[in-house]
Design a protein that fits this description.
Layout lengths: L1 H6 L13 H12 L10 E6 L2 H8 L14 E8 L6 H18 L3 E6 L10 H9 L5 E10 L24
Antiparallel strand pairs: 1-2, 2-4, 3-4
Helix pairs in contact: 2-4
The structure holds flavin mononucleotide.
The site of flavin mononucleotide (FMN) has 10 residues, from strand 3.
Length: 171
């Protein structure tokens, strides 16, 4: 697991190659395996491969959408905000599980934050809801862009880790 965690980097440039059906299924399973508070399972995933839709999603946020330009697969991580008061935490775990399975498969991904972000004229969450026809009660956490890596990034090493962030027994 530590090797996967060290190798996972945000990949913002992908090749033209599509993600295979088998890999897609594994990535979806990883998202669905995420635990949720009180096992309420408020998280839902929207799997998007349509190029025009992905282009429309790019316009849902002013900055930070570069990886959508080349990604062949995007998963929107959304959650029923009326089903759980901690849907943000639940959705974050699902998004993380997805990114880790992607790395395990040798693919790359980037988390594109939508909650509390803005498009040109509106809130990013509202903009994504419109594009993907998501009901209002669903919070939109993030889009995960996924594909075959077309950039090299160095894995993290132990020397990169800031152990001063870890305290023992007391703050
Ligand atoms: C909550 C969250 C929001 C993020 N939002 C974006 C984003 O909107 N666009 C983007 O390109 N990367 C985004 N990232 C990726 C971070 O920029 C990236 O994880 C960080 O710079 C560390 O780089 P690494 O992922 O290669 O380790 C986000 C990451 C997290 C955890």
């Amino acid at each position: 697991m530590l090797d996967i965690l060290k190798n996972r980097r945000s990949i913002r440039k992908f090749t033209n190659e599509l993600v295979s059906k088998e890999d897609k299924e594994k990535i979806i399973k990883a998202g669905l395996l995420a635990p949720s508070s009180m096992n309420k399972k408020p998280v839902e995933l929207i799997v998007i491969e349509n190029k025009e839709t992905i282009e429309r999603l790019e316009k849902c946020k002013k900055l930070g959408t570069l990886s959508l330009k080349t990604s062949p697969l995007v998963i929107a991580v959304v959650a029923d905000s009326e089903a759980s008061d901690v849907w943000v935490e639940d959705a974050s775990i699902a998004a993380t599980f997805i990114q880790l399975e992607v790395e395990k498969l040798g693919l790359g991904s980037t988390w594109i934050q939508m909650r509390r972000r803005e498009a040109e004229e509106k809130d990013s969450e509202i903009a994504v809801r419109e594009v993907l026809e998501i009901p209002n009660k669903y919070g939109v956490l993030a889009l995960i862009s996924i594909g075959h890596k077309d950039e090299d990034k160095s894995p993290y090493e132990d020397g990169d880790l800031d152990f001063s962030k870890v305290r023992y027994e007391k703050f």
